[in-house]
Design a protein that fits this description.
Layout: E1 2-5, E2 8-12, H1 23-40, E3 45-50, H2 53-60, H3 67-77, E4 81-86, H4 94-107, H5 120-141, H6 146-151, H7 164-171, H8 177-184, H9 199-205, H10 210-213
Parallel strand pairs: 3-4
Antiparallel strand pairs: 1-2
Organism: Caerostris darwini
Pfam families: RNase_H
Protein name: RNase H type-1 domain-containing protein
């Protein structure tokens, strides 16, 4: 953070936040400290120039319940007349470039000056990443469903296409005689009378589906 008065830089400060603090929280902290300095220096009228559009949007959002945003709004109630100005980052604005330099210096400080808790969004992201990693490890080492593993070796939450019957065919579950026999004691034999009805039999061998099988791509016949 830097403060200019009549084009002359009169104050510069930097801080180090804990590693868990987001960029958004760092921008909030810088504006909070700027307001505190404006008050301490008895500056009657000031303009705060920032390249953080997200912070300005948060301050203008009456529904925002972030405790740090609410704290900054409360501080502004008792601050001198302050005008916020947004500027594009890295376009050569002297004050903004100087602020970026001091922000970088702050990350190199040996001590942490302020602590902020991890935002809920970050915690959710970390939990999701950890759970996906555990799921992938279990899926890769399991002895079950290795045929499905050949089709889908990597865990992915992106839904490509949802179809009840395709899911039954891929997994071998549902209204397939072998699956019904395993769980409900039904007859596992296919109605064609030539073999047990499982997924591979239906797709590749059952004579009842020979005509339909002709429309399969050559690599699947």
């Amino acid at each position: 953070m830097v403060i200019f008065n009549e084009g002359r830089q009169i104050l510069q400060q930097n801080w180090r936040l804990n590693d868990e603090a987001s960029v958004f929280m760092a921008e909030l902290h810088a504006i909070k400290m700027a307001i505190s300095n404006i008050r301490d220096l008895s500056i009657k009228k000031a303009k705060i120039v920032t390249d953080s559009r997200s912070v300005l949007q948060a301050l203008n959002n009456p529904s925002n319940t972030n405790p740090s945003v609410l704290g900054l709004k409360e501080l502004l109630r008792y601050a001198p007349s302050i005008e916020f100005i947004w500027t594009t980052a890295h376009i050569g604005v002297a004050g903004n470039e100087s602020a970026d330099i001091h922000a970088k210096l702050g990350t190199e400080r040996p001590i942490i000056d302020s602590y902020y808790s991890r935002p809920l969004s970050l915690l959710k992201s970390l939990l999701l990443t950890e759970n996906l990693g555990t799921w992938q490890q279990l899926w890769s080492t399991s002895l079950k469903s290795r045929d499905v593993f050949q089709l889908c070796p990597m865990i992915n939450l992106r839904r490509i296409h949802a179809n009840f019957f395709i899911n039954q065919v891929i997994t071998g579950h549902g209204a397939i005689a072998k699956h019904q026999a395993r769980f409900f004691g039904a007859n596992p034999d296919c109605s064609c009378g030539t073999a047990i009805e499982d997924r591979d039999h239906i797709i590749l061998h059952c004579p009842q589906w020979a005509e339909i099988r002709k429309i399969f791509p050559p690599q699947l016949r």
